[in-house]
Write a structure and sequence with these properties.
Elements lengths: L1 E2 L6 E3 L1 H5 L7 E2 L6 E3 L2 H25 L3 H26 L3 E2 L2
Antiparallel strand pairs: 1-2, 3-4, 4-5
């Protein structure tokens, strides 16, 4: 559980924080104020997801050259990228007050 930056009560689960981004915020269930994440840190934490997904597409195209291989490479890259990005997002991106 994560603490609300307004009321300092544990109000947000791991998955609720994972859904936050530069354009999405949540309301605290305790104090009803908006909470978000800093956009620059969220984008940095999401970089492995996009980079490995794109790399998977490129590898699938370069080595096999068929659409199923390209899509499988992209899917594997995104899956690996998510497993790397989720802990980075958990540790590196703090909750912040939204106005």
């Amino acid at each position: 559980m994560y603490e609300c930056p307004w009321c300092d009560r544990k109000a947000f689960s791991f998955w609720e924080k994972q859904t936050l981004g530069p354009s999405r915020s949540l309301r605290c269930v305790e104090c009803k104020r908006k909470v978000g994440v800093p956009s620059d840190r969220a984008q940095i934490a999401a970089a492995p997801l996009f980079l490995l997904g794109f790399l998977g597409l490129l590898i699938g195209k370069a080595y096999f050259g068929t659409w199923p291989a390209v899509l499988l490479g992209g899917w594997l890259g995104i899956t690996l990228g998510f497993t790397i990005a989720a802990p980075i997002y958990h540790l590196f991106v703090p909750l912040e007050r939204q106005t």
